[in-house]
Amino acid sequence: MSRYDAPRLRAALAAVPDYVPGRSPRQGCENLKLSSNENPYPPLPSVVAAVREQAGRINRYPDPACTALAEALAARLDVPADRLVFGTGSVAVGRLLVRATAGPGDEVLYAWRSFEAYPIMAEVCGATSVRVPLLADERHDLDAMADAVTDRTRLIFLCTPNNPTGTVVRRAELERFLDRVPSDVTVVLDEAYTEFVRDPDAADGLAFHRRHGNVVLLRTFSKAYGLAGLRIGYAVAHPEVAAVLRKVGLPFGVSGLAQDAALASLAAEDELLDRVELLVKERARVTAALRESGFDLPDSEANFVWLRLGGRTAAFTEACAELGAVVRPYGTDGVRITVGEPEANDVVLRAAAAWR
Ligand code: PMP
């Protein structure tokens, strides 16, 4: 055994929570993994072909600027390419945003419950997390969040649809919120699930980004586009912010495989969005069936639903596991269930109806 003297690590890191990923299902039951909001459909043949083609070039570094992808996505979103910053999943880009804006003594504000990576992103950078509880109907309490802004607030995460509750921030309330927040505070709209939104009153991030220089969008190819395993997400940010994010980011952080898969996915977007539509229909079916079984749940605009089960969270998780389905428990708050293929959803619905 080699000698080990504890090195001087940053003491504050000891208190940072670990990110706990969704559990894996029993072997052969991969379609019953409903714990990580993944896309249940396998990659399209054209996407696999693009990855194969790129695999022959992995002895070379990838294009650090993701040039071809930036151009294609800029055209698709109708934003200049210099506003796009890519990273190893949108978690990585979120981390860059915190690193670029907040350090010790600064505050990062977000709703709670929300995406579990936010506290980690903030605290790893030495910033202080400020959490504002969700409203009783599981939506962001934007009035309370605006009240919580101080002269130390540097960055605000608004997760819409919110992970894990599926609720969205509406256009009118976001407008009021942005009027109250100083324009030098970065407001990040985390739109990881934006392709699943059908509520006509939901805030459209791109429209807000165009009007407010401090609004940054965080998006991903992991969910609707089904590329979770390749790790690619991006920010849409003011060019000055984007330039700083690129500086803070790791060079060559996005593989050529991921870049080409994302390009091929954009080319096959219609087909991918048809799949999203199937999941949206399944979401409605799952929601209605759970309500029929007596569960109370908010309307979800994402590819998952949220059951606030309090102290019965673990028991419900176990009831699903007995039928092979893996869902995501959150302490004694509730359970998040990813919407999968119909057969997988049926397993959860059976477990839920029997358990209730
Ligand atoms: N934001 C939210 C709200 C999420 O739920 C997730 C994934 N669980 C992400 C960002 C990160 O996605 P990725 O890093 O795969 O792009």
UniProtKB/TrEMBL annotation:
EC number(s) recorded for this UniProt protein: 2.6.1.57
Pfam family, one: Aminotran_1_2
Family note: Belongs to the class-II pyridoxal-phosphate-dependent aminotransferase family.
Cofactor(s) named in the record: pyridoxal 5'-phosphate
Residues with N6-(pyridoxal phosphate)lysine modification: 223
Transferase listed as a keyword: yes
Catalytic activity: an aromatic L-alpha-amino acid + 2-oxoglutarate = an aromatic oxo-acid + L-glutamate
Protein name in the entry: Aromatic amino acid aminotransferase
PROSITE patterns: AA_TRANSFER_CLASS_2
UniProt feature coiled coil, ranges: none
Quaternary structure and partners: Homodimer.
Function statement: Aminotransferase that catalyzes the conversion of aromatic amino acids and 2-oxoglutarate into corresponding aromatic oxo acids and L-glutamate.
Ranges where the Aminotransferase class I/classII large domain occurs: 32-350
Keywords: Aminotransferase, Pyridoxal phosphate, Transferase
